[in-house]
Amino acid sequence: MRVWAVANQKGGVGKTTSSIALAGLLAEAGKRVVVVDLDPHGSMTSYFGYDPDRLEHSVYDLFLHKGSVPAGLPGQLLLSTSHEHISLLPSSTALATLERQSPGQSGLGLVIAKSLAQLWQDFDYAVIDSPPLLGVLMVNALAASQQLVIPVQTEHLAVKGLERMVNTLAMINRSRKQALPFTIVPTLFDRRTQASLSTLRVVRDKFPQEIWQGYIPVDTRLRDASRAGLTPSQFDGKSRGVVAYRALLKHLLAAQLVAQVA
Length: 262
Ligand code: ADP
Ligand code: MG
Known about the structure:
The protein is α/β, with parallel strands linked by helices and 262 residues long. It has helices at residues 15-28, 43-47, 73-76, 96-99, 103-106, 111-118, 136-144, 158-173, 194-206, 220-228, 232-235, 240-261, and strands at residues 2-6, 33-37, 79-80, 86-89, 125-129, 147-153, 182-187. The chain is 43% helix and 13% strand.
């Protein structure tokens, strides 16, 4: 299994949309995918038709055992989605209580890594959707993953948020054996606005190595897909957004190959 996390300490930048779009395309390619919703808001969970306020069992259950994960528990928590090859480890609002704990002291930093280790045989990919703040859950997402996708909305102020995320990553990398490779993905790009054009230029200048050279355009079909509870490619495989996500997936798979060889 390969584990990808999608994270940025800013909300509304396309994290959940990117997680589901990429998971959907992987599933379409025949991969078995588990998506993990680590955001207490539970947007990914809602996307697939579950109410994070009402779920009795969720990813939160995994954090209730002092950092160890009982055998079989992650598998019991899986829910089905609109795509037969995508299973969901759902969020619940209870997760918010974890955010207030300090990641260093709680001993809960590896709960998701340990949980996914139990699912290693059952899935080809895990895609983790992360909360927009640095706490236990973000630390878990980054500790569990082998590749990080950072969506960046192409608008003013985005660069500050990106720098904050890259600093967070540098901090996390100190406790990892290998630095976590990351790919910056410009999102919500609108070529008619100065903000989009200038942000894209600044980010490309600052992170020439890490940025994906394409961008995800503003595409209302992505919003329509979420309303329908379908992955973007299930909803409309030819929409501009899906075409862009398909190019991104190709890039991420190529980057992964390079990382494996190195
Ligand atoms: P995050 O998870 O970072 O908070 P979301 O993926 O939930 O961000 O996106 C925020 C909102 O913007 C959602 O309503 C989503 O449907 C919409 N959205 C995301 N990406 C696009 C896009 N490329 N074009 C149009 N709407 C988008
Ligand atoms: Mg989200």
